[in-house]
Design a protein that fits this description.
Number of helices of chain A: 15
Oligomer: homodimer
Shape of chain A: globular
Number of domains of chain A: 4
Strand content of chain A: 15-25%
Strand order of the largest sheet of chain A: 15-12-14-13-17-18-16
Largest sheet of chain A: 7 strands, antiparallel
CATH topology of the largest domain in chain A: Uridine Diphospho-n-acetylenolpyruvylglucosamine Reductase, domain 3
């Protein structure tokens, strides 16, 4: 084992710490898993050179490195393993906007919201918008290939990554891509690193594609008797236009929000759809009218549309309130399963059955337009038996999604929490292929071991 | 060396041939390179099992396999090497459209245009549109991560690939992705295979994302005194809206078209921009008016707009006539270099200097909105000295693009023609990383050796 003091001396002043309170604070992401290990030290890098030094030192000693952005992950991907270096990128947060090329050159610790704000100053927009966009970092977004609400029209993180600086497992820094928009020279290594959850390399800089500022949005809210009808409406809408948001809340999540803070939502509705259009000019009104017509044609119970941004924001707030509302009901296990869009009803009916069978509450909010859902398994804090039932429900939901041709994770990543279920989705041949790539890039297995796959 | 007869017996009836005329016909793609080798045999697979049998047989004997779609490649990626099996996928061309999931399940030999047509029957659209869309195959599009004219707004092939069946170098068939839109489970292997030019595996099925049918398009044509002014206009337009097409022709290509077939283009113009908007409803007129205003504000000499599709098509025809027009002027070497959009003027001025220095003609057409250009090096057929000068110019243009932070290929692929220039773009560390991936996936090096990197 090489000497920690050597590492500390090689890094920026104050980057390395073994102070117990700090180590405790950096052991876990938002999953707050009780299986997180205890690090050897925490490195808060200030430069790419700090990252290279850390990885070189770890490689020499076979010490695991667990990279970490803002710590807002929901799958345990940044949870420490015993004896690791937790490598935090939170202090590397420079942002440079280049309006001529419409790109942002960003360090990994910069928050998603900070990039959006810097782009807005130039009349530009960075679309990917995880619900946590105010507190999550670009490095974490790249590591998980994060999605969000607008990806139904604008795609996910990987669609906006034009370039990456990556520190490999031996400490080499490679520069992939650049400020050009189209580039097919060589293998798509750039895309391989996006979504690799820190297992193949550590991102120290990203070049992100920006687009012109989003047009004003009009909003539609519609309730339906059942999730089946709501989902059929989603399919019908998707065949004719691309809304800039298309979210679904099931009855349990509507009621959780109403319990938390009365917003006048219809507690008897089987499901509620929340849609937006940001089409330019007069097309916004046309798109919203078309979606309204679709909702009514499919038997929507109530349908309300508004072109007023404040009113629209009020409804979007109901959707965003779902997570805090549900959080008050107990301890949570947050799912991220996805299925082909027309199978949403089967998924939601199956989840209701799983909830009943395991005697747990499972409200669902969904990025319905993408078929990506967040069933939230709720169990009373401190009730060990309920926790076991919740874990069982959590596994059953992933198995259900796989059986429907779906995925165990649409945007949060596998992390450490969903790792056991991954082979069921990918099968042995794809798992073997995955391990061959890992072996080729990180033969000592020091980069985020136990995460991702 | 295993016996060819064994392979023939394992394949679909008539799949294997060693007939000399057929072998000659399958030796080259459109680059018509005189360095193409002579295959051992040609396999025209009918099923994924044929592909697996072929690769297993080749793997056992260490025989190279050169996969091939429609043979419309422009970089020599499908040119045979001596003693290889040319594995043609042209007979595997089933297309199934699933309107509910908005996906196309496609065999690799299906033509891009056939997929577009099948999708259109369901009111859906497959956007990627290489200029060769009527004759190029989806398998080739995936292998090169093909682009086209609409990618300035709609992205490239990789943005539409949701799933792939891939036969690996040992004959294993892996199934990646599926009909779900968002999926971050495991490494982004899907994206790694897109653009890998047949060097990592052979695609036997693709699941493609479809979107609602494109809205009607309005068209703008504007001429400018210089390419600098035209390029500055492109940058300005891109900051405020996303046109569905934004093409540039330089003076040499305008004149080549006029020489070929008089269309009334302004031979004195330094550059011509061709833009389209497909914004929904009334927004189309607003976007075109805005672009017109931008062109005039930047000093456009003449600017013409039309909402009439036939008239718009006439102008688009001028752009598409560039290639046949230039082809009549001699033998061609077709470039595909790209730079960050604001550096287009530097690139074009540099290309003009290279043309003069090497005494060759180099007209340029460009997907200007993406910074992706097609300089076409013309030299008299049969003039050996001119051919040498053309090859020199070809190399110099790639070096220039690299020096401007650009790429040697934006959408055609490296193939065999640009391989020598790739290390200059990627550098030794990225080349080494590339070879580690190749070694992990194809340790015997049988898949398309000499192509891609």
């Amino acid at each position: 084992m090489p000497d920690l003091a050597d590492l500390g001396a090689a890094l920026s002043e104050g980057a390395l710490t073994t102070e117990p309170a700090t180590m405790e604070a950096y052991r876990r992401d938002w999953t707050q898993s009780d299986t997180a290990g205890m690090p050897l030290a925490v490195v808060r890098a200030r430069t790419a050179a700090d990252v290279q030094e850390t990885v070189r030192w770890a490689s020499a000693g076979g010490v695991p490195v667990v990279p970490r952005g803002a710590g807002s992950g929901l799958s345990g991907g940044s949870n420490a393993v015993d004896g690791c270096i937790v490598l935090s990128l939170e202090r590397m947060r420079a942002i440079e906007i280049d309006p001529a090329t419409r790109t942002a050159i960003v360090e990994p610790g910069a928050l998603n919201a900070e990039v959006k704000m810097a782009a807005a100053v130039e009349g530009l927009w960075y679309p990917p918008d995880p619900s946590s966009f105010e507190i999550c970092s670009i490095g974490g977004n790249v590591a998980t290939n994060a999605g969000g609400l607008c990806c139904v029209k604008y795609g996910v993180t990987t669609d906006y990554v034009l370039g990456l600086d990556v520190v490999l497992a031996d400490g080499t820094l490679v520069r992939l891509g650049g400020q050009r928009i189209k580039d097919v020279a060589g293998l798509s290594l750039l895309k391989l690193f996006v979504g690799s959850e820190g297992t193949l390399g550590i991102v120290t800089r990203a070049i992100l594609r920006l687009v012109p500022a989003q047009s004003p949005r009009a909003t539609l809210v519609a309730t339906f008797a059942t999730v089946e009808v709501a989902a059929r409406t989603v399919v019908a809408i998707g065949r004719t236009l691309r809304p800039s948001m298309l979210e679904l809340m099931d009855q349990a999540s509507i009621n959780a929000v109403e319990d938390y803070q009365s917003m006048g939502l219809d507690r008897t509705a089987g499901a509620m759809l929340l849609a937006q259009s940001d089409a330019p000019g007069g097309a916004r009104a046309e798109e919203i009218a078309h979606m309204e017509q679709m909702c009514l044609a499919h038997g929507s119970v109530e349908c309300f549309v508004t072109d007023d941004p404040d009113e629209g924001e009020m409804f979007a707030a109901a959707r965003r309130a779902a997570f805090p509302a549900i959080e008050r009901r107990g301890s949570l296990m947050l799912e991220d399963v996805g299925v082909p869009v027309p199978l949403l009803p089967e998924l939601l009916v199956g989840i209701a059955a799983i909830a009943e069978r395991n005697a747990v509450e499972i409200p669902v909010v969904a990025h319905a337009g993408d078929g990506n859902t967040h069933p939230i398994v709720v169990h009373p804090a401190g009730d060990a038996a309920a926790r076991v039932r919740a874990a069982q429900a959590f596994s059953e939901i992933m198995a259900l999604a796989i059986s429907l041709g779906g995925t165990i994770t649409g945007e949060h990543g596998v992390g450490r929490l969903k790792r056991a279920a991954l082979p069921d989705q990918l099968g042995p041949d794809v798992m073997a292929l995955t391990h061959r790539i890992k072996q080729a890039l990180d033969p000592k297995g020091i980069l985020n071991p136990g995460a991702g796959f």
